[in-house]
């Protein structure tokens, strides 16, 4: 089966926005290449010569997860079970919040490649603010903005290089 690129992060950092942005569509549409399973949304991607599936684990409203740490646990479990690469999404406008540290803590012992995606880095002068997220973990950090369409090719190159 295809490599799985699993998107994790606390609510509101822009996981679904990232999914739709990478998929190149405004809304993830359910068709032959996009699918909703019970707990995740997937989309088949091609970049350069690589094919992979991106997976948005963030509550799609089918499971009624009211406890935020339960939702994070569920995301991490999907990542542990099925990810070949994990996109750990954070929010440069908010900076590091306790729930980000919780996600980082749960990922610490997950032995899979992780890319930190600093979303909402809407302007280039904010790039240095994204550097704070290095303290959340190991691996690459890519500042992006789904809103301003910043650094999509950079992120896709980083993903493709690590699959
Ligand atoms: P999720 O809960 O992690 O799936 O987050 P969503 O994708 O639902 O996005 C949460 C909010 O962040 C929405 O209001 C988005 O419009 C906003 N958002 C997403 N990406 C960006 C971005 O690059 N810049 C800014 N300023 N806002 C964004
Ligand atoms: Mg979402």
From TrEMBL:
<feature type="binding site">
    <location>
        <begin position="56"/>
        <end position="60"/>
    </location>
    <ligand>
        <name>GTP 1</name>
    </ligand>
</feature>
<protein>
    <recommendedName>
        <fullName>GTPase Der</fullName>
    </recommendedName>
</protein>
<comment type="similarity">
    <text>Belongs to the TRAFAC class TrmE-Era-EngA-EngB-Septin-like GTPase superfamily. EngA (Der) GTPase family.</text>
</comment>
<feature type="binding site">
    <location>
        <begin position="9"/>
        <end position="16"/>
    </location>
    <ligand>
        <name>GTP 1</name>
    </ligand>
</feature>
<feature type="domain" description="EngA-type G">
    <location>
        <begin position="3"/>
        <end position="163"/>
    </location>
</feature>
<comment type="function">
    <text>GTPase that plays an essential role in the late steps of ribosome biogenesis.</text>
</comment>
<feature type="binding site">
    <location>
        <begin position="119"/>
        <end position="122"/>
    </location>
    <ligand>
        <name>GTP 1</name>
    </ligand>
</feature>
<comment type="subunit">
    <text>Associates with the 50S ribosomal subunit.</text>
</comment>
């Amino acid at each position: 089966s295809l490599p799985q690129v699993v998107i994790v992060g606390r609510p509101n950092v822009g996981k679904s926005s990232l999914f739709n942005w990478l998929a190149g569509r405004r809304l993830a549409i359910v068709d032959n290449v996009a699918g909703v399973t019970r707990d995740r949304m997937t989309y088949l991607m091609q970049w350069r010569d690589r094919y992979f599936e991106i997976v948005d684990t963030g509550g799609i409203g089918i499971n009624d997860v009211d406890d935020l740490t339960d939702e994070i646990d569920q995301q991490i479990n999907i990542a542990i079970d099925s990810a070949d690469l994990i996109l750990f999404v954070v929010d440069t406008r908010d900076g590091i919040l306790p729930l980000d540290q919780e996600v980082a803590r749960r990922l610490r012992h997950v032995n899979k490649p992780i890319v930190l995606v600093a979303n909402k880095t809407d302007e280039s002068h904010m790039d240095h603010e994204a550097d704070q997220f290095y303290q959340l973990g190991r691996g690459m950090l890519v500042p992006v903005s789904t809103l301003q369409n910043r650094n999509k090719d950079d992120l896709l190159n980083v993903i493709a290089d690590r699959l």
